[in-house]
Specification:
CATH superfamily: P-loop containing nucleotide triphosphate hydrolases
CATH class: Alpha Beta
Order of helices and strands: EHEHEEHHEHEHEHHHH
InterPro entries: AAA_dom, DNA_Partitioning_ATPase, P-loop_NTPase
Pfam family, one: AAA_31
Number of strands: 7
Protein name: Chromosome segregation ATPase
Domain AAA: 3-171
Organism: Neorhodopirellula lusitana
Length: 248
């Protein structure tokens, strides 16, 4: 049965999509059948693996999900493209429990096809995000190593705990990832200490450094492994992938 990760943070610009794309790619490069699902209306994850957004999001439709799955240039990595139609999110919110059941049904229908499913969620506490959490087995939270890193995280943790309580216990904390890490800055070290002291063992040992390759790769429709395979960013996501596999 697949492990399903929702990658979430209410704050934008923290490396959420970068993590979704490159963790997915690292898992696939390790020989694991992996599906990336883009539910962020910005559709950056879709573009980063070389595809265009869909007209309507497959996760809220009736069509079997496998009919919307596309191959990528990375072997063993497939993608369900996002949609820029904000009406899709409105439909999800209005449908409530029915939409949540459909979303989970779509994921359940492909759990035997993939070993890992990674969902790139919107940078806000939308109905789509909460629905993804209810259907996932694990939640992964990227936290940027800057002053406002902890802003909103407490609220996000509250939402996650509510989902864990309200569901059948399928969702667990997969881990917290420190991103945009600059070891030369005292502030970075202070935030790392604060996050590790507060959250303990759920924080990944590996961190993702600031690396221009991670910023440039999506503009070429590539993962960091295609764009700059010897970069610090590629190494960091390889190490993160190994840590994720060890936590299985």
């Amino acid at each position: 049965m697949a492990r399903i990760f929702s990658v979430v943070n209410q704050k934008g610009g923290v490396g959420k999509t970068t993590t979704s794309v490159n963790l997915s790619a690292a898992l696939a490069l390790g020989g694991h059948r992996t599906l990336l699902i883009d539910i962020d209306p910005q559709c950056n994850a879709t573009n980063a693996v070389g595809h265009e957004p869909a007209n309507h999001h497959a996760m809220i439709g009736e069509t079997p999900l496998l009919e919307s799955v596309l191959d990528t240039k990375t072997e063993s990595l497939s993608v369900v493209p996002g949609s820029r139609r904000f009406q899709d999110a409105d439909v999800m919110a209005a449908a409530g429990e029915d939409a949540a059941k459909r979303f989970r049904g779509h994921l359940d229908s492909v759990m035997d096809e993939y070993e890992y499913i990674v969902v790139d969620c919107p940078p806000s506490a939308t109905a789509m995000t909460e629905t993804s959490l209810t259907a996932s087995t694990e939640v992964l939270i990227p936290i940027q190593c800057e002053y406002f890193a902890m802003v909103g995280v407490a609220q996000l943790i509250g939402t996650i705990k509510k989902v864990i309580t309200a569901t059948d216990g399928r969702l667990t904390f997969g881990g917290i990832l420190l991103t945009m890490y600059d070891e030369s800055l005292e502030l970075t070290r202070e935030i790392e200490d604060e996050v590790r002291d507060f959250f303990g063992d759920i924080v990944f040992e590996n961190v993702v450094p600031r690396d221009v390759a991670l910023s440039e790769a999506p503009s070429h429709g590539q993962t960091v492994f295609q764009y700059a395979p010897r970069s610090r960013g590629a190494y960091a996501y390889t190490q993160l992938c190994m840590e994720v596999l060890q936590r299985d």
